[in-house]
Amino acid sequence: MPTIPHLLLAATGLALATLASALPAQGSPPAPDEAARGKAVFRRHCAACHGRGPGDDGSPHLPGTAALAARYQGSLPGALEERADLDTETILYFVRHGSGPMPMFRKTEVSDADVGAIAAYLATSAASRQK
């Protein structure tokens, strides 16, 4: 009979395998339909804070974009759509844990596959801006 640690290990392995199958492979270009879906998910859940500005209050950036721009002081763009350094695992961490005023999102709000699609969109968006 399996022990609880063995069951937890098996469940963790299954969860990681499921996540890996839902995310695009690193180094491979994202599928156009995945990037398009990611753009829709980004607009629905992320753009209100992390999109390109201006904000409703007349500020040049939206709150998340402004906070990241202040944090990076020009070394990285504040707008996530201009960042080429964000991989799926990084985005997934911040989506699940939040950061400062950014709330965490449950899998029922933003699925792991949605996060993979967001990563595909951001990679495509950043690449198109670098041309």
TrEMBL record:
The keyword Mitochondrion does not apply. Residues 33-126 form the Cytochrome c domain. The keyword Lyase does not apply. Residues 1-22 form the signal peptide. Keywords: Heme, Iron, Metal-binding, Signal. It comes from the Bacteria. Gene3D superfamilies: Cytochrome c-like domain (1.10.760.10). This is Cytochrome c. The lineage of its organism: Bacteria, Pseudomonadati, Pseudomonadota, Alphaproteobacteria, Sphingomonadales.
